């Protein structure tokens, strides 16, 4: 991952070769900019398609991987949370990272910043997090982590991979949408919302075609078809 650009490394690729190509890409893009910014690469170990039957939260390694992947998704603003859910998630993270509530002088700034996206930071107050953190007294870190994941799992599409997309094929929907892909099918949602506009199960998808910046999905039956074109940089 470089900046907002993310690409999956294939199993047959050599890691050093990928790093070399990305370094050349970074140098070429930086040279074209008037202002020099510091860039660095990030390696993310992710499950891109979470299959319920394959998830084993009794495995501490897998549980840890999924926990940090969820945190990354939250910080990237790819998971819809209400204000109350945001407070509860921050309080649970505080219990995991800081331990028991010890008084009103505790600083939750770093915990909140490392849990939520910048867009949501102003919606969560330290006092609200402190109140919920106090209610978690004596909950050990593994219990808090499980409670954190249980709260995430309350959304039916929590296993989906989310993409920011734009559409122009219908005026009935907003231009900017979320594309969510999980084991049950393909879903289009209002941007940063849990409101599902439509769902296409895989049996209903006849064909698809993808380019670097666009995705075309053909749905329906052999007698009547519908074409969906989505644009994305992701």
Quick synopsis:
The chain is α+β, with helices and mostly antiparallel strands.
Tell me the series of helices and strands, N- to C-terminal.
HHHHHHEEEEEEE
- Gyration radius, in Å: 20 Å
CATH topology of the largest domain: Acyl-CoA Binding Protein
Shape: globular
Number of folding domains?
A: 3
Average residue pLDDT = 88
According to DSSP, the number of beta strands is 7
* Category by helix and strand content: alpha+beta
Report the uncertain regions: none
How would you write the strand order of the largest sheet? 4-3-2-1-7-6-5
- Give the N-terminus to C-terminus distance in angstroms: 11 Å
Could you state the oligomeric state of the chains shown?
A: single chain
Strand content: 15-25%
CATH architecture of the largest domain: Up-down Bundle
Number of helices: 6
Please report the first level of CATH classification, the CATH class of the largest domain.
Mainly Alpha
Major sheet: size, sense and barrel closure?
7 strands, antiparallel
Approximate helicity band: 25-40%
